[in-house]
Amino acid sequence: MRAPGLSATAGRHAVDRSGPPLLEVRNLVKHFPVRGGPFGRARAQVRAVDGVSFDLWRGETLGLVGESGCGKSTTGRTLLRLVEPTAGEVRYDGQDVRALDRMGLRALRRRAQIVFQDPVGSLNPRLSVGAMLEEALTVHGLGLPSRRDRAVELLERVGLSAEHIDRYPHEFSGGQRQRLGIARALSVEPDFLVLDEPVSALDVSVQAQVINLLQDLQAELGLTYLFIAHDLAVVEHVSDRVAVMYLGRIVELADAREIYHAPRHPYTRALLSAVPRPDPIGRESRQRIVLEGDVPSPLDPPSGCPFHPRCPHSAKDASCRGVVPPLEGTRAGALVACHHPLGSAGTQA
Q1: What pLDDT shows up at residue 139?
Q2: In the chain, where does DSSP find H-type helix?
Q3: What span, in angstroms and rounded, lies between the C-alpha atoms of 238 and 64?
Q4: 178 with 119: CB under 8 angstroms?
Q5: Is the dihedral of CA 83, 87, 88, 89 positive or negative?
Q6: Model confidence, pTM
């Protein structure tokens, strides 16, 4: 299914994986302490990200999907050290991100930027558009000899005009504000963007415009994207590969076509069964899968497979309840964290 208004050129394209990945993530962990009592001691840990691993190649778009609270946004922010990781390894172009000092982190922030979900909260209401863009250029020593001309160029690149340069964020629509957020991210000439639900707060028609803009910028500038979203139709359209998260872990990672047409994890299959389809024949042939129960709390995740309390297959095998399944390859080439991955027909492989 294509989201309405999206261009015919999807995000899936030839990605060169012959060289080393731009981004390497191994066993990334982020736990937040929950404090209480008279002395503010940590009583428990929210296990927001609990052992995430993946690679991302230059020019690729990796979609990161899952229910609210599964750890998608925390993963994206931890990669850039906007949130400090608890454990694990993150390498950006061969550099150990966790070992960077203040100057090294500033250099990383020039190459790796983030576009936030809420354009209102991420733009300084006291700065005009021009001042906001020129500030980023000044910090990184870019835009010489004329930073104002560079700011105008950035506005025009994202579909705005020079007449907007002296306006303030509140004078723009939601879609225009998101374009400003993209312009600010592009101002430092990055290689990599974390797109944290960049269109979820926008109307459907405006979503399509922003998605098309992001795809055009990727083709023009050779950008690499981590596209975080819960709209599976949009993610299918823009992504080369898709990673599905559940309770702080990646449970499936595969080529976008493979994961949408033959998901191997029961959770992925349930998510996809809820996506509306315009084709009545396809709608009738795909049975809606309703998961029982609620997502467990990251304060007290279940033992074994995190999905086993809601999985229709876990009753058949005690290992589902006692052993955490590793994320490993299947015969179809997907990476799946499941003791009994499904076949293409929905049966256990």
Answers
A1: 87
A2: 72-79, 102-111, 119-122, 129-139, 147-157, 174-186, 204-221, 232-238, 256-261, 266-273, 280-285, 319-322
A3: 11
A4: yes
A5: positive
A6: 0.89
Strands, sheet with 192-196, edge to edge from the N-terminal-most edge strand: 112-115, 192-196, 224-228, 61-65, 241-246, 249-255, 335-336, 328-329
Contacts of 143 (CB under 8 A, 6+ apart): 134, 137, 149, 150, 151, 187
Amino acid at 232: L
Tell me which residue of 300, 340, 304 sits closest to 324, measured CA to CA.
Answer: 304
User: Residues 9-28, buried b or exposed e (16+ Cβ, 10 A)?
Assistant: ebbbeeeeeeeebbbbbeeb
* Rounded-to-integer distance, Cα 262 and Cα 282, Å: 14
Q: Do 258 and 332 form a contact (C-beta atoms < 8 A)?
A: yes
C-alpha span between 98 and 175 (Å, rounded) = 34
Whether the bond between 280 and the residue before it is cis, its omega within 30 degrees of 0, is no
Cα(240)–Cα(290) distance, integer angstroms: 28
Confidence of residue 279 (pLDDT cuts 50, 70, 90): low
Three-state secondary-structure class, residue 319: helix
- Of 205, 224, 210, nearest to 177 (Cα)? 210
Helix, strand, coil percentages, rounded to 5, for the chain: 35, 20, 45
Q: Name the band, by pLDDT with cuts 50, 70 and 90, for residue 282.
A: low
Residue 236 phi, psi (nearest 5): -60, -40
Looking only at the bridges linking them, the beta strands covering 192-196 and 112-115 are parallel
Q: How far apart are CA 210 and CA 181, in angstroms?
A: 11
